[in-house]
Write a structure and sequence with these properties.
- The chain is an alpha/beta fold.
- It folds into three domains: 79 residues, Orthogonal Bundle (Arc Repressor Mutant, subunit A); 99 residues, Periplasmic binding protein-like II (D-Maltodextrin-Binding Protein, domain 2); 105 residues, D-Maltodextrin-Binding Protein, domain 2.
- It is built from ten helices and 13 strands.
- Helix 8 links the parallel strand 8 and strand 9.
- The longest helix has 25 residues.
Length: 296
């Protein structure tokens, strides 16, 4: 498979039309059709179903689209890294993170570097721990900010100075809003929206779910989420109360929402991580050096 042909395939999948894809690639329609047919023969799989008005992907085509996107992203990232190797340090740095107020430490390092290395560009990807770790493992991210609990055995890491505090966001007209702190008993028998960080698979080694104890199975978890914005929308709509970290949702006077911490206090540490024995681009090396000076 050639990268060029994978890009042709991705264009066809994106446009849903051979004609539109050919136009976007500045190719003739017969040329593009022939290239895609050659790709199908090479893989010995039918990838595209050509309808009257729409091009659709087979199951094999959907798999190839996912893999092709990853391959093309990796190739483009590698090309950019090698182009950036010069006396003037430039290039791209890819950082993934869960939602956390501690991103302010990363932002502070980026701000400092902007003055000395204005040609470095930063690409921030937001996702939960699983999303970020998957992209780290595939080489699509240079660094990840992970909220505990998470297994760090595959990574080198720097612990961030602060811990995030767990609590609830609820509507201000909810009786729980009258409490200063929320106990486990307050959470029994009410509809809850739970972060996927609360999955039992995270808990045994980290002790994260020890706070909930045997009562965890009794919780009425009506929905789960990975990023808090949509969870806050559902809380506003009256779907339930969300268990989340502080400083992520809008709890201003006008928002109609409030945050109340759990009691006893439950906190999660944070780490910025990177793959062990990772070969960094010059730009990523500079970023890591500044990060270590600032945080270690």
């Amino acid at each position: 498979m050639e990268i060029r042909v994978l890009k042709y395939f991705l264009a066809a999948a994106r446009e849903g039309s051979i004609t539109k894809a050919a136009n976007s690639l500045h190719l003739t329609q017969p040329t593009l059709t022939r290239q895609l047919q050659d790709l199908e023969r090479e893989l010995k799989q039918k990838l595209l179903i050509r309808g009257k008005h729409q091009l659709t992907l087979t199951a094999e085509g959907l798999l190839l689209r996912k893999r092709a996107q990853e391959i093309v992203e990796m190739v483009e990232k590698t090309e950019a890294e090698f182009l950036s190797i010069s006396d003037a340090i430039s290039g791209d740095i890819y950082i993934g993170s869960g939602e956390t107020d501690s991103m302010k430490y990363i932002a502070a390092v980026i701000k400092e570097l902007q003055q000395e290395y204005p040609d470095i560009k930063y690409h921030i990807y937001s996702g939960n721990a699983e999303d970020v770790m998957e992209k780290l493992d595939r080489g699509l991210l240079d660094f990840g900010v992970l909220i505990q609990p998470v297994d760090l055995s595959k990574y080198d890491n720097i612990a961030l100075p602060e811990k995030d505090v767990w609590g609830i966001i609820t509507r201000k007209d909810n009786p729980l809003a009258l409490k200063e702190k929320i106990t486990m008993q307050d959470l029994i028998n009410i509809p809850l929206l739970a972060s996927r960080q609360m999955s039992p698979k995270y808990s045994k080694e980290s002790g994260f779910l020890d706070w909930f104890g045997d009562e965890f199975e009794k919780l009425n978890i009506t929905a789960t989420y990975n990023l808090v914005y949509n969870a806050a929308v559902m809380v506003k709509a009256g779907v339930g109360t969300a268990i989340t970290l502080d400083k992520l949702a809008d709890t201003s006077e006008e928002s109609g929402l409030c945050f109340r911490p759990l009691y006893p206090k439950l906190e999660s540490g944070l780490d910025i991580v990177w793959k062990k024995n990772q070969a960094f681009s010059p730009a990523a090396k500079v970023f890591l050096n500044h990060l270590q000076k600032k945080l270690q």
